[in-house]
Each structure stands twice: as C-alpha cells, then as structure tokens.
Fold this sequence. Notes:
The chain has 611 residues and is of the alpha/beta class. It has 2 domains: 35-323, Rossmann fold; 329-606, 3-Layer(aba) Sandwich (Rossmann fold). Helices cover 36% and strands 22% of the residues. The strands form 5 sheets. A 9-stranded mixed sheet has the order 13-12-14-15-23-22-21-18-19, with helices on both faces. The chain is globular, with a radius of gyration of 26 Å. It starts with 6 loop residues before the first strand and ends with a helix.
Amino acid sequence: MASPMWIKVNKSIRLSADSRFFSQRFYTVQREPMKYILVTGGVISGIGKGIIASSVGTILKSCGLRVTAIKIDPYINIDAGTFSPYEHGEVFVLDDGGEVDLDLGNYERFLDINLFRDNNITTGKIYQHVINKERRGDYLGKTVQVVPHITDAIQEWVMNQAKVPVDKDRQEPQICVIELGGTIGDIEGMPFVEAFRQFQFKAKRENFCNIHVSLVPQPTATGEQKTKPTQNSVRALRGLGLSPDLIVCRSTKPIEMAVKQKISMFCHVEPEQVIFIHDVSSTYRVPILLEEQGIIKYLKHRLNLPVDDEKSRHLLKWQRMADRYERLLQTCSIALVGKYTKLSDCYTSVFKALEHSALAINHKLNLMYIDSAELEPSTKAEDPVKFHKAWEKLCKAQGILIPGGFGSRGTEGKIQAITWARERKVPLLGICLGMQLAVIEFARNCLNWKDANSTEFDPNTKNPVVIDMPEHNPGDMGGTMRLGKRKTVFTTSSSLLKQLYDNAESVEERHRHRYEVNPELTQHFEEKGLKFVGHDTEGQRMEIIELEDHPYLVGVQFHPEFSSRPMKPSPAYLGLMLAASGKINGYLQNGCKLSPRDSYSDASEESSSDN
C-alpha cells in the first residue's frame, strides 16, 4: 500500500555568501494539492447523500489517505441548534460545541474523525460572514453581490476548512469530501452550485470530482425501473455548469445491467461511471458495494491518488463487520421512551450507539419506539388502546433508554417508565434529561418529595431537584447551552460506569444542556442509595448517577452517543446492552473484555495492529 505521506521532493544547491558552492543538498517538500470530492443529489431529498459521502470517505481512508468532510446546508439558519428534531432530525453536537446537521455524525462514525463547527456550512453562516465584512468596509465601497462575493466566500471557507486536521495525528487532510445538501434545482442551493462551478476550474480538473446521487424509482404497477428522473437530474446539473464524474443510482432493488447501460448512454458517461446502491440490510454494506463496483480504481486514475487497487485490511475488517451484522441470531429488545418517536432520524445517534453495542456482543438490536405521552394516565382516559399498547411494549423490553430532550410534554410518561425500571430492576440508561428525570422520580417516590420537579417544568416548585444554569442561558436560543466536550471526574472506584470506561479516572464526553441537578440536595439522595459517582472538574455539577442494588440504573448528564463508533461502542450504551442481555456480570468478571464468541476479536485485534 502507498505511504500515507504524499509529497514531491525537489533538490536544490545553495550558494553561500562568499560565492563558494557547497555540496550540501537541501530538500524542499511540496505537498500535492488538496483533492475535493463534491457529492450532489437529485430527484428527491433524503436520498442517502450523507451515507454515500461517508462511505466514499471510508474507502479512501482505508487506502491510507487522510480524509475530512464538509456538509453544506442551504438553509438560512446559522446552525441546527434551534431546529425541532422533526425538521431535520437530531441535532448532532461536536467536540467544540458546534450544533450541526446529523450527517456530520455519519462522517464521524464512518471515518472515526472529530470534526468542527465550521465543517458545517449554512447559507446563514455565509451571509453573516459576508455582511460582517461589508460592515467593516472590507469591500472598499463595492456593491456586494451573490457573484462574486457570496460565491468567493463559499470557496474560501471550503479551502480553509479542508486543511484543518481531524485525525488524532493532527496532520493535514489530503482529501475533502463535500456534501451539498438539498436537491439540484432548489433555488436556495443556487449560490453553492455556482460557487462549485467556478471552484472546479480554480482547483483544476485533476483535483476536483463530482459524484451525483440520483433515484431510480420502480413503480409497483409496472415493476420497471425508470431512468428518466436521473436523466433529468443530470441534465439540470449540467445546465448549471457541473458534470458528474460518477452517477450513484439509488433504488429499492438491485438494478439491471440494461438500466445501467441506458443511464450511461443518456447521461454521457462510461458504464463504469454508473454505480448502483440498492436498499441493504445495514449502512455498513454501502462501502462494500461501492468498492465492488470499482470506485477505488476510478478515483485513483481520476484524481491521481497514490493508492493500490487491492482491498485494504481496514476494508476487509469493515466487510467482516457487515457480514457479521447480517448473521446475528440473538435479539435484545430496548425500549426508547422519548418525545419525538414518529421520525427515527430524531434519535439517529442513540440508535447507532445501541446498534454498535448490540453488534459488539453479537446481538441484533430490536429497538421499540414508545411515545412517552402514551404512558401517562391522561392517555388512558382519552385513548385506552394506545395506552395499553405503549405499556405492552415497555413490559416486553429487556432494557429501557430515556434520551435527552426539552419541554414538559411527555415527561410524566418518562417518569412512569423510570419507576417501572427501578422497581422491577429492568436495566435503564438515562441521557441528559433522562438522568434529570431519574433524579426527580427518585425524589418523589423514595424521598417522598411529591412535588419535586425541574425548574424547567415548574419554576415555583418547593423541591427544585433540577435547576437552570443562568450563565449558560443569556436569552437567545441558539448556542447558549453548556455545549461540547467536557471532563467528568469519577468520585469513587466502585462506580459501575468507571469500570466500563476501563477504570479511567475521568472521561471526556459531549454535553448539550442548560439544566442540572441541584448540588445542594445531593446528600439526601446519597443517603438513600442514589449515588452521584461523577462530577465536573470543579465538583459542582453532577454528571453521573448510579442506583445501588440495581443491575443497571445509570444516568449521565452528557451525550455518550455522539462519540460511539461502529467498532468502538460507547461504554455507557454497551453497559445497558450487556445488562439487558444478562451478560454484564461476566463482562466485569472478565476484566471488561468480551468473550471470544461475543467480541470483535477478529476486528479489534487487527484494528490495534493497524494503528
């Protein structure tokens, strides 16, 4: 395999000050220019551009290249922090506190990198940047227009951010994968398309590649796979000045060769430039499908990449993981009791973290979404059928997860689920608000503080066991919470979660909250068996709770799902899955190592040797 260093060396001879030549040679290192891969989409939104972009990055990284990723969202919002999850799915939080689109979560999970807030570009950010420059007088009195000022700002942002290291070795990336959100033809995306039309000439052809993702529908009436939407989408893209180098066709079923040839002919590309990705059992299979259709060989010649054609060890590892996922026989049922259960994208990272943990112990995840409001007594009076169905799901669950959230709707139903888990010793993990509600439930039912509540829901409660952090809430909605990676220090060596984190003295996880457990009341909880085993570095903020004499009732103020990876599951989620499957005691007795039958032994050992 090619060396990860990608340089050209020029020899020169230096002339001394007294005009004598020295034989010593100096070597000037000239790095190859950045390679850019733009991923666009046509026909419909939500077609899977993020997974395609992540998979392409995964393949290139497996070839020994350093890869970064940028997501462009054409909406005017500055970031995703103020969105309802039903708008664009979950809000993904980065190490630096950036609240970004969920696709950046896909990039981090697939590529095992840590991105920054500026890796997510929005129309709002670009216009804010340009307007600030105009107010400072940077444009020297010129008329500020979409072309060239907005388009130039987009190009400069991409070029600058592409150089920012995202790997642990802190070396500058060599490849930048850029996903342009929305659909080609959308009016809001036009400035970005024009920016990249110009950018392809600035970067030069050998450094710029466009992958266009399109839909090949198959109407049930005829069963025939239709190419016309893809033809129209490519025509629209070309009309805007971009020509696709690769056309990735999405479909429900594998596409026939005749369809591939038809798209090749009418879209003016070679047959090998048409790639088909049909619906598969898991997204882990997508990089394998891309590799099998020759994407490495094509990108190697198209972008002049220093890589081998052969499949890398990392990609073989990935293939084994995908194969293993499809062979799982045992199932573990987890109930996710939340507020936004009508759209699975609202809890994408939670689902992925559970899936990573289930795969690590050789189980298939059966995730049951339960609308927390349906567990409340008021639902029983209004719709008893819905109420009993929700409780039936909860009773069947081997483990329960209470995710983060905001607002009072459905909180009483979550508290009902926590009571069920506590009393019947069902494994439970509470994340952020889930932890806070676990504290409220314990105060009401174990400390007999019947009116205990959070000031978020009842500002006048006599027992405010959860309070707001005014220094993190100056008034505006966006970006005003306690955000990003923070350190949590374990306060006791007997902590279950400490053992799951390899007995680390502290952990660093990402946060997103503006309410916290009232530190003045913690002694009352400790005396009754609810232990606060993790604090912030100042010892003032309660970060982790654990209930004594319970197989696994754990709450964390942070969001460990944001740092979970397919081959490195989050310890908090892994603990829930182990407890739900009855394996946690054996895991702890084995030194927090999975048995060969249940572990990633074939993958993890190679992973450590590769690194």
